[in-house]
Amino acid sequence: MDSNTARLTDRSMRPNSITFIGGGNMAASLIGGLIADGFDPTRIFVSDPDKEQLSQLAARYRIHAAADNQSAVEAAEVVVLAVKPQVLEAVARDLAEALQASRPLVISIAAGVREAALLDWIGEGIALVRSMPNTPAMIQAGATGLHASAGVNDAQRNQAESILRAVGLTRWVEDEAQIDAVTALSGSGPAYFFLVMEAMEAAAVELGLDSESARLLTLQTALGAARMAIESRDAPATLRQKVTSPGGTTEKALGILEEGGLRDLFKDALLGAKTRSEELSKILAKT
């Protein structure tokens, strides 16, 4: 289902209160996005062991700094688990009793931790949504994959979507295993584009451009191409064809890229990332 056209995600779908367990960059991005989109900061609670970071978040966004994780989730309608995957088990087990008592919707943004492991740690019967955001969420330009466990109802799906859409686009997947493909595509994807920009910039310098011009022209070209792809009804293949004149410079360059196996390289790269995501999920489930 297309989460951006077929589901209700207006402000009426938002929860009354949200608690973030963990106050790192992604949590701060979600909080900033929610507030920028009109969510009442007095209904947002955050808990984090780094008291200085917690204090800075509270001062910046006028949200509530909770004394500890348990008190933070007591009255929350939604709890966002925003801690590192390596410490999530300990945090989740410590929260299990409080979560079983309050029964909120739980959203995990921890990469690689499967729903079965999470439900084992926090206990069965909790409505759980697993999400895979990416780093552009920090500038409200993210792309997030979502999967709902069996205990999540339609209203809770809409609540989860309304939160993650505050920092960009969202897409639901019906099979949790597809989150590994999302990780390979959009989770790791920004780095692929950074590498392409890095390579183009370096090549432009070798062709004689000064470094500043090479960087700015590369970045603006990437931005312009992305905006055209987003705003046009044409597929990327059609857009590519429209700017490729027969016998011209673009055709020559694209021919070299095709001969070099660019498509197969990207296919192998995404497959490798997906396989690694699957491996890491198994490792995290055993720790």
Automatic annotation (TrEMBL):
GO CC annotations, alphabetized: cytoplasm
Chain ranges of the Pyrroline-5-carboxylate reductase dimerisation domain: 176-280
Binding site for NADPH: N69
GO biological processes: L-proline biosynthetic process
Compartments reported by the entry: Cytoplasm
Record-linked Gene3D superfamilies: NAD(P)-binding Rossmann-like Domain, ProC C-terminal domain-like
Annotated SUPFAM superfamilies: 6-phosphogluconate dehydrogenase C-terminal domain-like, NAD(P)-binding Rossmann-fold domains
One GO molecular-function entry: pyrroline-5-carboxylate reductase activity
One Pfam family cited in the UniProt record for this chain: F420_oxidored
Domain Pyrroline-5-carboxylate reductase catalytic N-terminal: 18-112
Positions annotated to bind NADP(+): I21, G22, G23, G24, N25, M26, A82, V83, K84, P85
Catalytic activity: L-proline + NAD(+) = (S)-1-pyrroline-5-carboxylate + NADH + 2 H(+); L-proline + NADP(+) = (S)-1-pyrroline-5-carboxylate + NADPH + 2 H(+)
EC number: 1.5.1.2
Pathway assigned to this chain's UniProt record: Amino-acid biosynthesis; L-proline biosynthesis; L-proline from L-glutamate 5-semialdehyde: step 1/1
Top-level division of the source organism's lineage: Bacteria
Keywords annotated in UniProt: Amino-acid biosynthesis, Cytoplasm, NADP, Oxidoreductase, Proline biosynthesis
Main localization, broad class: cytoplasm
Family in the record: Belongs to the pyrroline-5-carboxylate reductase family.
Function as written in the Swiss-Prot or TrEMBL entry: Catalyzes the reduction of 1-pyrroline-5-carboxylate (PCA) to L-proline.
Protein name: Pyrroline-5-carboxylate reductase
Annotated source species: endosymbiont of Tevnia jerichonana
